Amino acid sequence: MTQLAQPEITELSPRESAQDARRTQILDAARTCFARSGFRGASMQEICLEAKMSPGGLYRYFPSKEAIIEAIAQEERCGAAELIETMRGTGPLLDRMMSCAMGYFAYMRDPGACELMAEISAESLRNSEIGKRFAQIDDSVRDIMREVFLEAIETGEMPPNADLDATISMLQAAVDGIALRQINDPDLSLARVEPLLRRLVAGVLGMKA
């Protein structure tokens, strides 16, 4: 009997692992600085101090603050894609949407996450290049939502929608608004949000809660 070849497992070398850890250390420090001081206010020196690294060490990984922002944008893009994928799959559409929203809210409760989101939104209006980077994240989320809704309409789970784009925008505004609200209302727990958001989403989509 012929034995099938086993897939080769590639492990990171200690050097690669250390480099990844240092890169993560820098990006975590940058997120903290950007949430505290803003993209414009945070300096490379501040990021160095937060990361507990020398300027020379930091510049080996990122030659500029813009390069750090680009790396954060890429991580946000990957994270958003992974989270929004929970809307696919089996089970009632409303349950899948709630799972996605609750995962997002949980992530946004991490220290500095809401503040960084607010800074991204503000800087995207001032800086067209940053705006373009983070607009890609928004576009990818909208594309998946549109695909999921069209499938639900086709199967009869969701009634026909005359303006799907506006509906998606309304839902995004509600979810982003709740996430940002956590800054000033830390008692707005996930347990309190879920049943209210479920009814809101069901109403917007014309479904039963």
From TrEMBL:
Entry keyword annotation includes Ribosomal protein: no
Region ranges (Disordered): 1-21
Record keywords, A-Z: DNA-binding, Repressor, Transcription, Transcription regulation
Name of protein: TetR/AcrR family transcriptional repressor of uid operon
Highest taxon listed in the record's lineage: Bacteria
Pfam families for this protein: TetR_C_6, TetR_N
DNA-binding region: 43-62
SUPFAM superfamilies hit by this protein: Homeodomain-like (SSF46689), Tetracyclin repressor-like, C-terminal domain (SSF48498)
